[in-house]
């Protein structure tokens, strides 16, 4: 399959079209691949900065586990960036949230790797999110650097080259 061209024409997301965000000008609904990647990056940041309430007991409602009731990730402010186990759990939480709530990334391709911890404070950890962006006709690898402030729970995401 031929690789996508950076000027390939796609459509803005529904939320961007409804809200008039994402650089939509004068009713132009087209978006390029690089703009699409930036939109996915923004949406992942929104997802991961949404803290869902305490895990609810949903055993009798299996579909509710993957519903909007569980949008986001659990609060991880009690995790320590100095703990390999905590960083591993956070990787799993991020992967799970992306598999459920980010359909533009191929579920099987999503991988979150722990990179490092801020040695001075031990309060910040860095991760890398990798996956395959698949929005017809585009299918392209993407990578995002993720900075996590363990004390505040704030997550910043940037596209990598």
The total strand number stands at 6
Order of neighbouring strands in the sheet with most strands: 3-4-5-6
Query: How many individual helices?
Result: 3
CATH class type of the domain at 49-159: Alpha Beta
CATH architecture of the domain at 49-159: Roll
Under CATH, the topology of the domain at 49-159 can be stated as Nuclear Transport Factor 2, Chain: A
Rg, nearest Å: 17 Å
Low-confidence stretches: none
Report what the structure shows.
The chain has three helices and six strands; from the N terminus they run βαβααββββ. The protein has 161 residues and is α+β, with helices and mostly antiparallel strands. The chain has a domain at 49-159: Nuclear Transport Factor 2, Chain: A (Roll). The protein has a four-stranded antiparallel beta sheet with strand order 3-4-5-6, with helices on one face. Strands 1-2 form a two-stranded antiparallel sheet. It is globular.
A few lines on this structure:
This protein has 161 residues and is an alpha+beta fold. The protein has helices at residues 14-19, 33-48, 84-101; strands at residues 10-11, 30-31, 111-117, 124-135, 138-149, 155-159.
Show the helix and strand layout.
Blueprint: E1 10-11, H1 14-19, E2 30-31, H2 33-48, H3 84-101, E3 111-117, E4 124-135, E5 138-149, E6 155-159
Antiparallel strand pairs: 1-2, 3-4, 4-5, 5-6
For the structure shown, list the relevant keywords.
161 residues; globular; alpha+beta; single chain; 6 strands; 25% helix; 4-stranded antiparallel β-sheet; two-stranded antiparallel sheet; Nuclear Transport Factor 2, Chain: A; 25% strand; 3 helices
């Amino acid at each position: 399959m031929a690789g996508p061209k950076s000027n390939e024409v796609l459509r803005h997301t529904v939320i961007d079209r409804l809200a008039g965000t994402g650089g939509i000008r004068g009713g132009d609904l087209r978006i390029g691949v690089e703009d699409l990647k930036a939109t996915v990056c923004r949406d992942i940041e929104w997802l991961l900065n949404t803290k869902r309430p305490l895990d609810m007991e949903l055993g009798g409602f299996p579909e509710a586990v993957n519903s909007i009731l569980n949008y986001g990730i659990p609060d991880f402010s009690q995790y320590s960036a100095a703990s390999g186990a905590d960083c591993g759990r956070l990787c799993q939480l991020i992967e799970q949230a992306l598999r459920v709530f980010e359909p533009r990334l191929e579920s099987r391709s999503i991988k979150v790797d722990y990179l490092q911890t801020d040695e001075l404070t031990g309060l910040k950890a860095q991760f890398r999110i990798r996956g395959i962006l698949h929005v017809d006709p585009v299918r392209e690898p993407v990578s995002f650097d993720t900075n996590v402030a363990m004390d505040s729970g704030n997550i910043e995401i940037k596209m990598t080259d």
